[in-house]
Structure formats: structure tokens, C-alpha cells
Amino acid sequence: MPLPAEFADLEPYLAWALPTESERYARRLDSSLVEMQTFYDAAFPRLEEAIVYCDEHPYDDLPEDARTLLRLMQSLVMVSFPVEVWKQARVPDSGAAYLTVTAEPVV
Amino acid sequence: MALYPKPAEGSWTEHFPGVGTGVLSYEDCISPEFYEAEREAIFKRAWLNVGRVEDVPRVGSYFTKEIEVAATSLVVVRDLTGQVRAFHNICRHRGNKLMWNDYPRAETAGSCRAFTCKYHGWRYDLTGKLTFVQQEGEFFDLDKADYGLVPVHCEVWAGFIFINLAESPEPLQVFLGAMVTDLGGYPFDALTERYDFTADIRCNWKIFLDAFQEYYHVPVLHSQEATPAARPKMPGFEAPYYNLDGPHRMVATSGPPRRLWPTDYQYPIEIATRSGLFGPWNEPDLGDDLPGVNPGGIKAWQMSNFQIFPNMEILIWQTGWYMLYRYWPTSHNTHRFEGSLFFPPARTASDRAAQECAVVMFKEFALQDAGMLVGTQQGLESRAVRDDFPLNDQELLVRHFHNSVASWVDDYQRAHPVSVTR
Amino acid sequence: MTEAVLPADFSDLEPFAATWCLATEAERYARRMASTMAELEAFYQAGFPRIGEALGYCDKFPLDGLPDDAHHLLQLVHSLIMVAMCVEIWHQPNVIDGADAVLDRVAEPLP
């Protein structure tokens, strides 16, 4: 079971369980607003429960299902600005600019 | 051969005083120093066509134009009184590019009531006046009247919008001269169905322009413009009429419309769509009086090609449509070509298909020029041959163009001796 | 069996619709350059003789109010014009001596 049992309804979105920011950002740019909105609508109401579930474990020793769940929630954060603010995948007025994450803690 | 009589002087070239018949140098197309001189002497002093009035149809309509050769971007707008104005596309606060959409270096167009800078929200009205400064009280003795957009001279002739980057240029109509302004009555405003092309081409702008102002090359490079049956009957090209006026020049051709040629002299698709290389067969009624299009009064007039200095061409077909070309230098050995074809609005699918055939065939043969002239640039840059290119009488306009460019550069350098040297 | 997109009178051209009903010149030019001469000739042989009838059919409607099937048919005629260049003039997909030049049509009336 990739996700904890009580989060089984989020399994259609497992493709968003990505460990690094660059993967999450790339997936966002490759997604339509409809795809991101669908994921957002399913995952956003579960955010608090998911954090509570993960917090039951020490952060440096998360079980595999909790780790997958946390990565899914990181992707929820990634799509939240496109869905809530920009209404598009790209940041408006950002032109061809990019900012590459070169080091980050990975869950 | 001599299909058409030559002027009394024996040739078109000798008919026009001062053009000369000697060999030509193409150093002006390969020298980075000469390119720097052209930027100042020509592109910051001559009137340049940047669009049509149809590009700014309503109050508040605007478009931006990148002019790399002058290292600037302009915004052209129709103000509340209907006047077309141009400004440097730069916010007066800290120099940010004012109007852009997805990418700062890409041109954009739209409609607005004021120009607002994305950076700090400074706002300008359609006459360029600064009307709003974010947190104005934080500034020191700022008078908004001193910080309007930097205007650029902008005038309209026959619906063509021209700009001039000089401080006090001569009026546009004086610059254009009688040969060009005589076209002012042509119903350009009736031909609004438009197809636009752009291409980045790896040769000097003058090399490409040269290929569009002489037809000596057509039976050779573009031999396929004639069908296999017609090809042997087209040994060469002669124009019945040339004219020069200041730095501007024109050539006319004559002949029956292509639709009246024998059927095996046309491609099947031309007959099927009732159109082709020379345009749709169905001619719009543009009226009987089309002033200026055939200044030589030649019989069976077919089309006239006006080369307006420095980088604009208007090519008017007897069959009721026209083409507009512009050649924008981007370096000494590259330029961006813009080509537009204008027709009367299509009312039926047949009208549309006829336009499509003409437009597709234009691209086919323009690609031959675009493909080959990269090789001309390369050949000239070898400098294996220097200052020794012979031009014939059908290449009069090429000769006159390079002479005009040299003359503008010379004039400028005489007046500004400390500027760029060759 | 996919749903017909062309008027019933032109069902013989239906096999070409999925490939050649393209809205813009950029798409038609790209499809031409990605095709073999055998493919271009097959389309031309089938479609060229029908151009007159096709335009006659479309002309029954105002250009800005073409039904979908007529609109598709007109797109097919546009593609036939494109393909005719290769079949009638060049006998190859790309322009002779066009080298690697590109000339992008950046604005055009639609349909």
C-alpha cells in the first residue's frame, strides 16, 4: 500500500509523489490547469490530516507510506500558486527566467 | 533580345545621372565597421515603416516594435484623439521595458487605456504623459511633467506608420518624395486581408533586399516559377521601366495576367484554385484611377515594385493586391525579414483558397532566396574577390541602392568626423 | 471506425482527414516536410481532382459561417495547395535550393 489506508482516495495522484523540487516544478509546467485543479481539489481538504499523520512519526524515520504522503503534500504546495493565484502553470511576467534549486533537504 | 526599348542614353543605368556603370564593392555587406556606421547614419536618421494603421484600429490599440539595429524598442499607439504616436518603450523611472507580454524581448500588441510599468507601477497616458507615481511622496522634488515617455517622431502616409529616431527629421512626405507619394491615392485601406511572415536570415539585409529588386536572377534561381513547358520560352528577364527618386527606386513589369497564359504554362493547382504565383484571378474593383502605380505608363502593366529607402518595399499587382517587405538588420551578417501579403477580405471559401495558393507560392520561391543568399554572405566574407562585382542594366536598382547607402553614410560621417571610422 | 468529419459527398477523402485537416499553415508545412513523396502523391492523386467540387460545396456557405464538415473540407483544400507545390513543382518535399531556410507565417486569417 503506497499511501496510508485512510488516504487511499489520493492514490490516483501518486504520480505527484516526487522527491525533489525540480521534479515537482517540471511536472507543474507539463500539466494543464485542469489537471492541477483536479489534484488540488482532492488533496487540499486532506492537508491537515496528512500533516497530523506524518507528525506521529519522527521526521528522520518516516515509514514509507508517510514519506509518500508528505511528498504528495509538497506537490500540493507546488500547484497551489498556479491554481489559487496565477490561473496558469507559469508565473506571469517571468519570461524565460528560471531558478534552479541546487541543494535541498529531501524527505 | 531587347524586348523593350531602352532610353535614349542606350541603357537605363546611363539614363540616370551619377549612377555609373563601374564595378561594385560589397564591402558594405561584410564589414562590421560599416554596419556600425549604417546604424547611426541610416537607421537613426531615416523614416522607417513599422506598421499599418490597421495594426492600431481603435483608441488605445498599441503594438511594440523591436528595432535591434537602433538598439531600442518602440511602442506605437492610437491616442484618444485618434492620432498615432510612438515612444521609446522604456519606463522613465529606472529604465525598465514598459510594454511586454510573455517575454521582454518578444514583440506584443493589444489595447489599453494607460501604459503601466510592471516594475513599480508608474503609469503613462496614451500621449506619453506620466500620470501616476507609486508612493510619489517618497521621491525628491519629482515633477511628473519632466518624466513623460520619450517620444519618437511618428507620421502616417497612405496608412503606413513610419517612425524616425532623429531629433528633427525632415517631414515624412518630403523624405518619401513625389515618386512614392504619388501612390498615396492607392486603396491600400481596401486590402485588409493579411498574411504575415517573418524569417531570421544569415545574411546582410542589403544582400536579401538586392534579390527583391532585380529580376535578372528569376529565370535562373527561380526557374521553376515557369512550368516545364514554359521554361524554354523564358531565356532571360527585362523590365520595361525603371525610375529613381532620391534614395528611392522602382521597377515595373508588363505582360498578360498569368491566368491568360496557355494552360500548360500554369501549374495545375493554379488553375484549380483560380490563383497562383501572380495572385488570385478574381480581381477586386479598386476603381479605374490608381494614381502612381504605373508611373512609366507602360502598356500591359503587370506590377510595380517600389523600394523605399532604406528597408521597405511595396509591390503592387495590377490584379488588385500588394506585398509589403521590410528588412531589419540584426548584425552585419544577419537580418530579420518581414513580409506581408494584402488582399481584399475573402467572402467565400473559393476566395480564401485562391489567396492561400498565392501566399503558399510566395513562400516557396522566397525560400529559394533565403536558402541561397546565406551562401552569398559566405562567399563575400571570403574576400577572395573584392570591389570588383560587375552589374548589368537590369541590376540598376541594386547599384542605386548601394550608392544611396554609401551616400547616407558619407554624409553622416562628414558631419560627424569623430564617429565610427571605416 | 472513426466518425466522419467531411461532408458525405467527400467520404472518399475521409482517409486523409486525420492527417491533413490542419488549421494553420505552420501545421500544414510541418506535415508536408515530415511526409514522404509517396504519401504526398497519394493524397494529391485522391484530392486534387476534387478541389473544384470541394470549393463549390464550401461556397454554399458564408466563409465566416462554415459548418464543421465544410470547414474541414476547406482545410483539406489548403493542404492540397501545400502538397501541390511538392508534387507539381519540386518533386520533393522541400523547396529546391531552399537549404535550411525557414519563413514562418506568423499571422493569417482563419478559416
Model description:
The complex is a heterotrimer of chains A (107), B (422) and C (111). Chain A is built from 4 helices and no strands. Chain A is mostly helical and 107 residues long. Chain A has one domain (5-86). Chain B is α+β, with helices and mostly antiparallel strands. In chain B, helix 2 packs across helix 8. Chain B has helices spanning 12-15, 32-43, 172-181, 205-211, 218-221, 268-273, 349-381, 396-415; strands at 48-52, 61-67, 72-78, 84-88, 109-111, 115-116, 123-124, 130-132, 151-157, 160-164, 193-201, 241-245, 248-254, 301-308, 312-317, 321-331, 334-343. Chain B is built from 8 helices and 17 strands. Chain B has a 7-stranded antiparallel sheet with strand order 1-10-9-4-3-2-5. In chain B, strands 11-17-16-15-14-13-12 form a 7-stranded antiparallel sheet. Chain B has a 3-stranded antiparallel sheet with strand order 6-7-8, with no helix packed on it. Chains in contact: A-B, B-C. Chains B and C meet through strand 11, helix 6 and helix 7 of B and helix 4, helix 5 and strand 1 of C. Chain B: InterPro entries: Rieske_2Fe-2S (IPR017941), Rieske_2Fe-2S_sf (IPR036922), Ring_hydroxy_dOase_asu_C_dom (IPR015879), Rng_hydr_dOase-A (IPR001663). Chain B: GO terms for molecular function: 2 iron, 2 sulfur cluster binding; dioxygenase activity; iron ion binding; monooxygenase activity; oxidoreductase activity, acting on paired donors, with incorporation or reduction of molecular oxygen. Chain B: Pfam families: Rieske, Ring_hydroxyl_A.
Attribute tags:
heterotrimer, A: 107 residues, mainly alpha, 4 helices, 49% helix, 0% strand, B: 422 residues, alpha+beta, Naphthalene 1,2-dioxygenase Alpha Subunit, Chain A, domain 1, Rieske Iron-sulfur Protein, 2 domains, 8 helices, Aromatic ring-hydroxylating dioxygenase subunit alpha (chain B)
Sketch the topology of chain C as an H/E string, one letter per element. Answer: HHHHHE
Mean pLDDT of chain C: 96
Q: Characterize the biggest β-sheet of chain A.
A: none
Low-confidence blocks of residues of chain A: none
